[in-house]
Amino acid sequence: MILKETLRNIIKSQRDELLLYDEGVEREKIRQIDLDVPFAIVISGVRRCGKSTLIRQMMKKLKNFYYINFDDPRLIDFEVNDFQRLNDVFLEEYGNSGYYFFDEIQNVQKWELFVRMLLDKKRHVVITGSNASLLSRELGTRLTGRHLRYELFPFSFKEFLSLMDKKASINSFQNYFFKGGFPEYLKIGRAEILQELFNDILIRDIAARYKIKNIKILKEMALYLITNIGKEFSYNSLKKIFSLGSVHSIISYISYFEDSYLLFTIPKFDYSLRKQLINPKKVYSIDNGLTHVNSASFSEDKGRMLENIVFLNLRRSYRDIFYFREKGECDFVVKEGEKIKYAIQVCYELDEENKNREISGLIEAMKKFNLKEGFILTYNQEDKIEIGSRKIFVKPVWVWE
Q1: pTM of the entire structure?
Q2: I want to staple 135 with a disulfide (CB 3.0 to 4.6 A). Which of 8, 129, 232, 326 is the partner?
Q3: Number of compact structural domains in the chain
């Protein structure tokens, strides 16, 4: 149990601190969110990607609101029974409000009970969290059909341009290419920010939460995966590399990495779900800057850095992303509804050595899915290629995005 006076001091200090920060770059995501819907609004995303800034931008539109951040060591013993005391303090300090903002709520067990009660009373609730799985578990039990989910990522190139007050150009894209989109790092520029973030995700979001003792293996595997962006891996190959006795441990570790938004995996396209599950997957990182700072070898392969940016831009809008391989290979095929909507090849520089390979792999995917148009995304080349009735648009990523 936490005393009312303790809660009072915490929420007042958090609110004061919250209001000290500037509003930052308006996130593209805010245009999608309607605060007045009769559902809990759930915003998930990696640590430090700007979730608190996003809800601060929402609060700006309101006359009054309640706010608490549970990622605070003073709230480590907060329990579900403390919510009523918290609500009393909110009312005493700030008067009546129908809007509640709960930051990093996954740190409180059974939080969904209180949120459900608020929804029953027609209150508006916004919650954020850094773990997709934990949020999903509680949302799926008590709040089924009563929530809307949104994911927030580090800055897109467009948001990066807004922060830097720059126009889209090859020079500004080169800056984004290496630095990525974590707001604090872009403002301050110190590598330690992303090194500390990487460790916080591994230690606080994964090791502590899932009681993992072998942190050395956990970190080595995370570094290995984010350094091998765009490359295939299998659970068995990782089992051999890290000398772990069970494939189940590998599967668990990767699910933890994905749930914390450190990385993503995509399957090889197949109409058989079973084959999707057993075929090798490809891995992508949450951010080029994070990977660049924490891995000495990653920046040597600019093609894979470009591929990672393309993946992240696709992932902001789509969940069903695959790689395609039959005779040739296509980097991404994107499914929307029941159909494949896009086939996309990524190539840092299209030249005589790789042109036929890149085009033939893309054309094969286009024929497979009956697509009339496809894309080859490059660092800074633009062209249009017509093969029979099919058109291939060659575009720089910084123009396409």
Answers
A1: 0.95
A2: 129
A3: 2
